TrEMBL record:
Transmembrane segments: none annotated. Pfam families: AAA_33. Coiled coil: none annotated. Keywords: ATP-binding, Kinase, Nucleotide-binding, Transferase. Its EC number is 2.7.1.12. Belongs to the gluconokinase GntK/GntV family. One of its GO terms (cellular component) is cytoplasm. Pathway: Carbohydrate acid metabolism. One of its GO terms (molecular function) is ATP binding. Gene3D superfamilies: P-loop containing nucleotide triphosphate hydrolases (3.40.50.300). It comes from the Bacteria. InterPro entries: P-loop_NTPase, Therm_gnt_kin. It comes from Hyphomonas atlantica. This is Gluconokinase.
Length: 163
């Protein structure tokens, strides 16, 4: 079975950094969900307006096409995957078994991380809406997103190996 390892969470949780580190440690290809957002979606989020499922349709489709086209057995995707709409879309369209890994980070730390970022379209003002929108898949693997990257990668690999 081909797997899509979805490193998920709200803005500031460290999805991209941890997904890239997991990819580097394992040799599995890395995908960044933000690269599949349209300019209109990025502009909408930058203005402080949350996306709707309609806004997300093309984004999910494009990520799934890219994932399905990859030959690797496992692919790592950094993706918020906040809602069941996105999660179910990834499951149905990616051609892969989705393994969701939530980076669990306290709200205060998330706000600090987002505020410290330069040149990113996601404002801290959308954090509350992201936390409210977060729906966890029933089989999600939760990890402490405040741990060191090395410890997180090791924990994720161990949890994935368990099934």
């Amino acid at each position: 079975m081909r797997d899509l390892i979805v490193i998920m969470g709200v803005a500031g949780s460290g999805k991209s950094s941890i997904a890239e580190a997991l990819s580097a440690a394992t040799g599995w290809p890395f995908m960044e969900a933000d690269e599949y957002h349209s300019a209109a979606n990025k502009q909408k989020m930058a203005s402080g307006t949350p996306l709707t499922d309609t806004d997300r349709e093309d984004w999910v489709r494009d990520m799934c096409r890219a994932s399905a086209d990859m030959r690797a057995e496992r692919v790592v995707l950094a993706c918020s995957a906040l809602t069941s709409f996105v999660q179910n879309g990834l499951k149905a369209q990616s051609g892969r078994r989705c393994r969701f890994v939530l980076l669990d980070v306290p709200k205060e730390e998330l706000a600090r991380r987002i505020s410290a970022r330069a040149d990113h379209f996601m404002p801290v003002s959308l954090l509350d809406s992201q936390l409210e929108a977060l729906q966890l898949p029933e089989d999600v693997l939760r990890v402490d997103g405040t741990a060191s990257p090395e410890d997180l990668v090791a924990a994720i690999q161990e949890r994935l190996a368990q099934g």
